Structures are given as C-alpha cells and as structure tokens.
Amino acid sequence: MSVEIISAAESFLAAAIRMGTPLAIAGLGETYSERCGVLNIGLEGIMLSGAFFSFIAAFLTGSIALGLAAGILGGLLMSMIHAFLSIHLRADQTIAGLALNFLSMGLTSYLFLVVFGRSTQLPECPVVGRIAIPLLSDIPLIGPVLFNQDGFVYFLLFAVAASWFLFYRTDWGLQMHGVGEHPRAADSAGLSVYRTRYFSAAMNGIFGGIAGSYLTLGLLGFFMENLTSGKGYIALVVVILGRRNPMGILLASLLLGSAEALQFRVQTMGSTIPSQVFIMFPYLITVVVMLFSIGKSKDPAALGIPFIRTKRG
Amino acid sequence: MKKMIMTVMVLTAFSFSAFAMGADDAAESGDRPLKVALILSGPANDQGWNAVALQGLEEAEAEFGIETAYTENVGVADSEAAFTDYASRGYDLVIGHGYQYGDPAVRVGARFPNTKFLAIEGGSSSDNAASYVMACEEAGYLMGVLAASVSKTGKIGIVGGFEQPSIIKILEAYKLGARSVNPDITVYDVYIGSFTDVNLGKEAALAMADQGADVLSHSANQAGTGTIKAAEERGLLATGDSFDQNFIAPETVVCSTIYSVPVLVKTAVKAVMDGTFEGGVFNLGMDTGIVGISSYNGFDAELSADIKAKIADLEAKITSGEFEVPLVETRTN
Questions:
Q1: Is residue A305 a part of any domain in this protein?
Q2: Taking CB atoms and an 8 Å limit, are A89 and B189 in contact across chains?
C-alpha cells in the first residue's frame, strides 16, 4: 500500500513539474522585462513563436539543438518587435503585447499551413530524453522527481539561481531595478535606459522561446495551431504571484502546476464534484493567493510607462 | 514617420491573422443552381470539426453541381448577421456548423420563409429550420466495448473536452459499453475543459495511465491528439475519435469512431434538392451511414475473432435498430 502511495505521489509531483516548468521559464523571462519597466503581455505570442520555430527546425533537421536555437530565435524575434514598438516608438505596451499575441497566432498558423498544408498526417519531431543524475536520483520520492528530469528542468533550476544572483547581487541587477523604478534618475546617473530595457526584452524573448520549445521538444513532439492555449497568460499570473522574485516564480509555477495536475487525479477518483470546478482550480488558487497578498506586492514604479529621454520632468 | 511604421506593423499583424483565418466568399451569379452556404465556428484548417464540414460542402459541390460559400470564425454574437447575410443574398440552404447556431437559425428563418436553415448538432427547429444531431453515442458505446475487451488491467480511461451534452453522451455510452463486457471494470473519465489544449489532453491521459489504465480513449477534438500520444509514449492502446486517427500512432490506435459530417452535409443538400427538407430535430445514427467506426488497420490480425465478431454483431444490431444505445446527457459515476 505504501508503495502505491509513494508511486502516486511521485507521478503527481512529476506531472506538477512538467506543467509548472514552462510557466516558470516564461515567467522568469517576463520578470527581466517587468523589472525594467516593460510590461509585455505578448508572452503567449513569444511562447507560441518559440514552440513553432523550435518544432519546424527540429522537424526539418532532426536536431534538438538546432530546434532549441530556432525556438530561442523565434521568441527573440517576437519580443524584439514588442521592444521596438514600446521602447523606441513608445507605443502603449499593453496594446503592443496584444498585437503580438494575435500576430504570433496568425503567423504560426499560417506558416504551419504553408509548410504542411491541410494534411491528415501528424508531423513529428524528436523529443529530449531524461538525464538521471547519479546517486541523487536514487533518493526515494524526491530523487526520481527532481533528479531524473530533462534538460529543460535543470536549466530552469540553474536559471532561477543565476537570475536571483543577477537581480540581487550584481550592479547590473541594481541598474535594472533603477531603470524600472525611476528611469529619469537612472538616466541622470549615466545609465542607458534604452539599452537596459532592450537587454531585458531580449532575455524575455530567449526565456519565452525556451519555454515554448519545452512544449514541443520536451513534452509533445508535435505542433498544432494555438499549441500554447493560454499558458503565456498563466505565466503572467506566475510573475505577479511570485512578485518578480525568481524563487517566488519557481514556487508560484509549481503551485499552479500542482493545481492542474491535481484536477485530473481528483476527477479520476470518481468525485461527484462537476469537472468545471476543477478546471477553475488554478485560477481559484491565484485569486486566493492574491487576496492574501494584497498590499505586499510592489510593482516597479515605471512599469508600463515609456521613457522619453528628451522630455522634461 | 514613427506612426507610419507602427501602422504598417499593425496592418501586417492583422493581415497575417486574416491569412490564417482565410476568409472566403463565393461570388454570386445570376444562374439558378442550388446555392448552399456554410457557417463555421473556427478555422477551416483545424484538421477536425470544421475541416470535415468544409470537406462535405466541397464534396456536395462536386457531386450535385451546387454553388457554395462559407465563412470561418463566426462567433455566436455574429451568427445571426451571417445567417441573414446569406439568406438575403438568395442562398437556398444555410448551414450553421455547431450547436450554438440552432437558435439563430430559427430566428433568422422566421424572416426568410423560403430559405432552408440547418444547424448541425443543434437543438431547435421550426418550419424551415432543422437540426441534425449525430448519434455519436452509438460509436462511443462500441469503443467502450472494444476498450474493455482488450484491456488487461481491468482499467480504462476516456478524456472528454468540455462537460457538455454532446460530449457527455459519448463518454457515458463508452462507460455503458465497457460495463456490458466487464461489469467490474474501472472506467476513468476526465473532462479537461478544452478542445484545443493538447498538453492538457496528454496530462489527463498520463494521470489515468499512472493509475493503471491500459486503454486510453478520448472525445476532445484536437486536445485528444495528446491523449493518443500519451498512450503511445507509455506503450498502451488507444482509440480515436471523429475520424480514423490511426495515422497519429499506428501501433497504438486500435480503432476510431467516425462521425461523417460530409455525409451529413450531403444528406441535407440532397433533401433540399429533392424538396424533402423539413423542420425538426433529427437524430442521425449508424443507419444513415453518418456514424460508424473505422477499420482496425494494423490491429486487424492481432484482435481475436471473438472480439471482432462481437463488435460487428453489435454494429449490425444498432444499425438495424434492434439495439438502441441509451442516450445519457448528464455525467454519472
């Protein structure tokens, strides 16, 4: 019996990590952007672009590495469009983000149609394997869940630590913080607001592209229209829940991942609660956590506000 | 200059979206071949629900020499306008492809008594508006029988899209079919609340596999592809839905339900041509050739003769009306 419980717990935790990882990677990217004052709600579009281009490259070349590179470029392309519109042209960041989502949706669907036509085949690409870390992966329960994962999960753990260090222990992190809180003061101090923001937008694109690639190269091995199905929006929630702190984002994404993984397991237990209630789970948790954290969240002061260097005041 | 660049970029974005949606309209002509219009809820290249309807329209065009037009991505709010548009342009039959078009068809139908309206899977009707409902539960029942017959663990699972009557009736029939073979069988059923999220479809299936299910089925459109891939990944068996999905995983998909929307569309067009089209809600099942099951493809040799005979026998009885698959539209345990 206890063996059964452990294996059920293992499979639940593994599912929670599978579903939380893309949210965390994308959320981490968005954090870079938002800490500098650029709100990019086009995250869904970035992920979708990453998913599409990683798939198409991996499908054509059979190489996961090239697929990942293409996915990163796809994400980068999308985020740079947003960066150019919102940093350079000072467009409304929300509108530009929305446009990005529609652009990515249309573009990927159209290109997918161009390449594969209205075929009845399901084109497939290779999927990354798991890497078991010796010794650590033998620990009961935690071992198989944490230390027998694919490269994307290890990358996430590394990126969380590295980003935390960058944000809180380096000059660069301080610079980003300054640009996000008071760009004029940062500018007066001789920092380049534009350059910092472009750097962050690029990080957003890279991480978003990797998150999208995880869906195709890590989880599914195929692409379909609107593959991301709103995961980019949930990743935005993760950023707010995790308060733009890498550790917080990791925890928030695991929380939402667990909620999603839990809904299937409760349903299969023959519960009489309507399925719609479970589908609300992740969102319900979000609302509850937000309720309890009222007042604690502090957005960067310049979030969403374009910086105009030549303007006074 | 900056404004111009932005305008150009936004326009590019929109034109790409428009490309993908592929708006299409046939030109009008003065002649009088029968004119049939089709209203779709999503894109026509979804390799599923909407694609098969368009395929039906194209087949009808080739077969009967009718004139056709279609509109994609019509939301519920725009559906009355779309129906009115086609009716006022002299179309003889306007088809709305989905349950949600039932009421708009009846309302617009009252203003255009000489035009025929059809809602596929609809639930309402009037003198000149009909709803054709596919008896998908008949095929779902057979999938349940098949899944229970090939299961070794005594546990099977089915993933549903949204918890709505048109899907519930398939999952409930599946459960009944499975229990007719093995009363003690465990049937997991999960609704994922999406027809498109393949990752959810896969995770739901993996959750069932983790609990010992060895045959995984679905009725979740595109999201169901994830279910089939989950079965393939775990080396389990699966059944497909809507059309022969064996191509997705030839070593995994034993059989699929077939809901032949093309035949349904042609049935409606033929009825209008013959003047036999009338209002009402019609249930169209195996006897009309609209609902059926696929061949076993590569599994034909592996399945025992007993199982195949049993399925064939049930299929014949359902077709002849000797056996009626119960229609259950609320979820049970």
A1: no
A2: no
Which chain B residues contact residue A265 at CB under 8 A?
Answer: 207
Q: Which of B17, B225, B248 sits opposite A102 (nearest CB)?
A: B17
Percentage, residues of chain A above pLDDT 70: 97
CA distance B273 to chain A (A): 30
Q: Which CATH architecture has domain B136-258+303-320?
A: 3-Layer(aba) Sandwich (3.40)
Instruction: Determine the pLDDT at residue B2.
Output: 60
* Cross-chain residue pair A118–B21, CB shorter than 8 Å: no
pLDDT in tens, B82-116: 999 999 999 999 999 988 899 999 999 999 999 99
- Four-way CATH pick for B2-134+261-288: 3.20.20.140, 1.10.730.10, 3.40.800.20, 3.40.50.2300: 3.40.50.2300
Q: Domain extents for chain B?
A: 2-134+261-288, 136-258+303-320
- Considering only CB atoms, which chain A residues are within 8 Å of B247? 120-122
Answer yes or no: do A268 and B211 touch at CB < 8 A: yes
- Section B127-138 average pLDDT: 94
For A109-137, the pLDDT digits (tens) are 899 988 887 666 778 888 888 888 888 88
Could you read off the pLDDT of B180-200 as tens digits, one per residue?
Answer: 999 999 999 999 988 888 999
Note whether A126 and A221 are within 8 A (CB): yes
pLDDT value of residue B30: 47
CATH number for the domain spanning A98: value is: 1.10.3470
Residue type, B143: M
